[in-house]
Amino acid sequence: MTSVDFEPATGRDHRLLDGLSAAVLPKVSLHDHLDGGLRPQTIIELAHELDIDIPADDALALGSWFATQSDSGSLVEYLKTFDVTLSVMQTADGLARVARDFVEDLHADGVIYGEIRWAPEQHRARGLSLDEAVDAVQGGIEDGIASVSRTGGSIRIGQLVSAMRQADNGAEIARLAVRHRDNGAVGFDIAGPEDGFPPSRMRGAFDYLAEHFMPVTVHAGEAAGLDSIRSALFDGRTLRLGHGVRIAEDIDVEHEQGGSSLVTLGALAEWVKDREIALELSPSSNLQTGAIAAWGSELADHPFDLLYQLGFRVTVNTDNRLMSNTTLSRELALLADTFGYDLGDLETFQLNAAAGSFLPVEEREDLADRIIRGFDAL
Description:
Number of strands: 11
Mean pLDDT: 93
Family: Belongs to the metallo-dependent hydrolases superfamily. Adenosine and AMP deaminases family.
EC number: 3.5.4.4
Protein name: adenosine deaminase
Largest sheet: 8 strands, parallel
Number of helices: 16
Cofactor: Zn(2+)
GO cellular component, one term: cytosol
Distance between the termini: 41 Å
């Protein structure tokens, strides 16, 4: 266990963005779900093609419905909105269009590298095989990259192939990810209900992935606590923690007079910090799902700043842009307004994400150089 002095955000003299739009900042997106980032208009058009009933036929009204339904404080209720998005993502054409839109929207927000996570097993209702689903998404990604290129832009995208932890298909999805590592797949993830479905249930899948050197990120420390994180690290051999916000439960903060605090890290928190295991924090989503309920119900209560100041490899993410009515730029702006972060802090978050990405080391270094050049030009 390690004890350190900690100065909270209040009182730090940090320069805000001074009117600069965060959209111009070069960004890296590590935790962004394909089925959580659809354009409302795309949902409407695909639903009409497939004769599917949806809550609203107007893009603005549909977007508002998603935001309202998602702002429940419950991960279970939050996940119900995916019934709508998944319903229009059951054909090759639908998957390709959603993936193309997704890439274009990331580029419009200043993202230069993104890892898109999704679960192919959730897209077989209309007869697609797992491989056909992956091919369709990759085709859409490539179309989106080409569209960005035609406008003079540049973006790079990788797929994170997810297994649903409650479905017990981990071994099959692990083989799928490895099979498509030369077709866009850069890593593996497990998603779905975290509490009651620890990574240890898929230990065989993780063994297979390790044997084939496929990088892994695991949803952990969102709807469940330290035991889930521990299983992700030691059963899943995860290189990143999907959310991971509840690692703060292993940090004891003793407030002292004068505004400073004595902070003690438990063994698990110390391991995550010392190993530089990236935390895929998603501030707005963490509020909506109740992931930070132990600390409060406002963004200022989020342990993001505590983790950052203690030296954890924090990254900023959207989780589900449609449900949270957000973008990566908006998340960065919210954090800057709440904790007084300046451009140097926002650059650190992007460099953390670049370092945590599942690219080869030389390409991670090139990505970091591109981020640095982008921030230096501002």
